[in-house]
Design brief:
Layout: H1 2-37, E1 41-56, E2 62-73, E3 80-87, E4 90-96
Antiparallel strand pairs: 1-2, 2-3, 3-4
């Protein structure tokens, strides 16, 4: 009986991992798009996982909320921080550290 439980746990972990990779790719696209829109440099071309929690969407369904951080530059000589929150596979929030527009 414990073998079946172990297999189910492994399958659930694999599905969570695949879903997390898809959410990460969407977060990278969102960060790249935001930086392009505001004429910023999306540094390192990647995001870093910061937080995982459960959260309800607008319809009341419980989904996984993942927070990713990234860095961008407004001058090319500095690093500023940004954060992206993905709810399920959808972009929920994108925040950029304040910077001066040139």
């Amino acid at each position: 009986m414990w073998e079946i439980t172990a297999l189910v746990a492994i399958a659930a972990a694999a599905l969570l991992w695949v879903d997390s990779m898809r959410a990460r790719e969407r977060a990278i696209r969102a960060g790249r798009s935001a930086c392009a829109r505001y004429q910023l440099q999306f540094l390192d071309e990647t995001v870093a996982f910061a937080r995982l929690r459960l959260r309800r969407d607008e319809e009341g369904q419980l989904k996984i909320a993942r927070t990713y951080t990234f860095e961008f530059s407004d001058t090319g000589n500095n690093r500023r921080h940004g954060a992206i929150v993905m709810l399920g596979g959808d972009l929920l929030d994108l925040q950029l550290e304040p910077y001066r527009m040139q």
